[in-house]
Write a structure and sequence with these properties.
Strand order of the largest sheet: 1-2
Shape: globular
Structural class: mainly alpha
Order of helices and strands: EEHEHEHHHHHHHHHHH
Largest sheet: 2 strands, antiparallel
Number of domains: 2
Strand content: 5-15%
Helix content: 55-70%
Number of strands: 4
Radius of gyration: 21 Å
């Protein structure tokens, strides 16, 4: 799915996410739909990035979406928590049963009771607290309005990685490696604060089309329905 963030609409839906399909579409519409393209936001998928670079060169900025970065961190933090829990006694591990969502939710989305329960667990398990603190520290970097250029963004992100590495957890180290590999494109976020945040809303809309149709065998018909429902530019 390609989103036109300027006009808040679904630009098009491709049948494949493979580089060849994306490349062909970008080349076909380089001089019409993308004649004034200035920036592309994407997840950490080499095919998307290399397709954009091949068609537009360096004149179009590429930004890796911060929400996909945080999603990747969440996945690795879950592995890291399991890594730590394997070192606990059966009694200690039992205390953590059913607490997974407490660690995954953003603090502002927790109820009063959930927040109190999480604080108890943090005191009881300081290493898990360190993991939670690392997650919040990365969120604060992305939310910090004082960071307004890529260089400062990279500096702050590298500082975060240094602290994360001190925990000595394989899963967290894996995330840091991913962060370093994509650092230049992730740091572009701090220039214009562009993200794919609204994409999830469109994804939900696409799924609702499939739910109402009890599935759809024809991609052609599905694409036409999506463009009919979500392809009209929003009024500003």
């Amino acid at each position: 799915m390609l989103i036109d963030h300027t006009n808040v609409r679904v630009l098009d839906v491709l049948e494949s996410r493979e580089k060849t399909a994306v490349l062909a579409y970008l080349q076909e519409h380089k001089k019409d739909l993308f004649a004034e393209l200035a920036e592309v936001t994407t997840d950490m998928w080499d095919g998307y990035v290399s397709a954009v670079r091949e068609v537009f060169g360096e004149k179009v900025a590429i930004t890796v979406d911060r929400f996909h970065v945080m999603k990747n961190l969440q996945e690795q933090l879950s592995h890291a928590r399991r890594e730590l829990q394997r070192t606990l006694s059966k009694e200690e591990a039992a205390e953590l049963k059913g607490s997974r969502w407490l660690w995954l939710k953003n603090p502002e989305n927790l109820s009063v009771d959930e927040r109190a329960k999480l604080e108890q667990l943090k005191k009881r398990f300081p290493k898990l607290r360190q993991l939670a603190d690392q997650r919040e520290a990365l969120r604060w970097i992305f939310d910090d309005p004082k960071i307004n250029d890529a260089a400062e963004g990279k500096k702050r992100l590298r500082g975060w990685m240094e602290k994360a590495a001190q925990l000595g957890l394989a899963a967290l180290n894996k995330f840091c490696k991913t962060l370093e590999n994509w650092l230049d494109l992730i740091a572009n976020y701090f220039i214009s604060r562009s993200s794919n945040g609204r994409t999830e809303g469109f994804n939900h809309g696409l799924r609702s089309i499939l739910w109402r149709a009890f599935g759809m065998r024809s991609f052609k018909h599905f694409r036409l329905r999506v463009l009919d429902r979500f392809g009209i530019p929003a009024r500003h």
